[in-house]
């Protein structure tokens, strides 16, 4: 999985909070003078250097999706199935298993209108999960894709609590028969990667490719000539929890 060009610009307030809270919660002495939080930070610094050496992501691009809820059928979960197969989620219905994309049913209170739509990591421009991560395991690539580096994730699950979309899962059990392009591991947090391993090869995310109605459009939000940008200009779209001001990379139409 590609994990290059991360953007780590947390707010001073969040980091100040973590300086005290994270150290207290995670400052478990492993040996005299050595704390778990310090090891995590050291590993994060090494991870930044390693990723910078193989840069492929570019800030000229911002990958995103437009999901048309008017085309999404409540009886269809093709996107969920495609994601599960791609990632290797064999038991997504189990209480402790991960779920990178899920279908949710919503209802407009005033009109009674019901609709179905997929919900996943929203790949925010200002991701709260990155802001609260004490080790830098949660990061945003230059092209807007938000990822977790499992090698420096210490399983604190702060990012799960910070995510407004409940889009991250914790791996509770050992994993087998994994996709080698999508490294996962027990004790780590994970979530939708927008199929970065496919995107970096010029392919579409699995959920987009599998959607039978064309309800999910993938593309470069920074390119005014891209299909996704053209669609956004031509139809009304919204961001889930837009009031948070975190500028999601996933946009919705019809909700």
What do these coordinates show?
- The chain is α+β, with helices and mostly antiparallel strands and 255 residues long.
- It is built from 8 helices and 12 strands.
- The strands form 5 sheets. Strands 1-7-8 form a 3-stranded antiparallel beta sheet. Strands 11-4-12 form a 3-stranded mixed beta sheet, with helices on one face. The protein has a two-stranded antiparallel sheet with strand order 2-3.
- Strand 5 and strand 6 form a beta hairpin.
- The radius of gyration is 19 Å and the shape is globular.
Task: Summarize it.
This protein is α+β, with helices and mostly antiparallel strands. The protein has helices at residues 12-26, 36-52, 78-87, 128-132, 158-162, 196-199, 206-210, 227-234; strands at residues 6-7, 29-31, 34-35, 63-68, 101-107, 114-120, 138-141, 146-148, 168-170, 189-191, 216-220, 250-253.
Key features?
12 strands, 3-stranded antiparallel sheet, 3-stranded mixed sheet, 255 residues, 19% strand
- CATH class (first level) name: Alpha Beta
Task: Evaluate the radius of gyration.
Answer: 19 Å
Would you identify the CATH architecture? 2-Layer Sandwich
The helix-and-strand class reads: alpha+beta
> In the residues, how many domains can be counted?
1
Mean pLDDT: 80
Q: How would you sum up the major sheet? A: 3 strands, antiparallel
What fraction of the residues are assigned to beta strands by DSSP? Answer: 15-25%
In CATH, the topology is named Alpha-Beta Plaits
Between the first and last Cα atoms, what is the distance in angstroms?
A: 33 Å
Number of helices: 8
Order the strands across the largest sheet as they lie in space. 1-7-8
Could you give the count of β-strands? Answer: 12
| Helix and strand sequence | EHEEHEHEEHEEHEEHHEHE
């Amino acid at each position: 999985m590609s994990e290059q060009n991360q953007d780590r610009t947390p707010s001073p307030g969040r980091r100040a909070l973590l300086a005290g809270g994270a150290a207290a919660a995670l400052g478990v002495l492993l040996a005299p003078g050595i704390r778990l939080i310090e090891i995590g930070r050291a590993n994060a610094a090494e991870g930044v250097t390693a990723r910078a050496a193989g840069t492929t992501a570019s800030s000229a691009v911002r990958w995103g999706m437009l999901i048309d809820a008017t085309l999404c059928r409540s009886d269809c979960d093709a996107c969920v199935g495609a994601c599960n197969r791609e990632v290797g989620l064999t038991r997504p219905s189990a209480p402790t298993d991960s779920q990178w994309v899920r279908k949710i049913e919503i209802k407009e209170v005033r009109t009674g209108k019901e609709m179905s739509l997929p919900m996943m990591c929203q790949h925010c421009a200002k991701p709260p999960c990155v802001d609260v991560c004490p080790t830098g395991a949660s990061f945003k690539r230059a092209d807007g894709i938000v990822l977790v580096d499992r090698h420096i994730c210490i399983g604190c699950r702060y990012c799960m609590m910070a995510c407004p979309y409940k889009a991250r899962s914790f791996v509770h059990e050992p994993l087998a028969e994994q996709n080698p392009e999508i490294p996962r591991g027990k004790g780590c947090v994970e979530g939708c990667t927008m199929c970065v391993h496919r995107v970096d090869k010029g392919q579409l995310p699995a959920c987009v490719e599998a959607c039978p109605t064309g309800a999910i459009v993938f593309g470069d939000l920074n390119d005014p000539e891209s299909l996704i940008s053209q669609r956004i200009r031509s139809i009304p779209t919204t961001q889930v929890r837009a009031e948070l001001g975190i500028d999601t990379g996933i946009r919705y139409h019809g909700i």
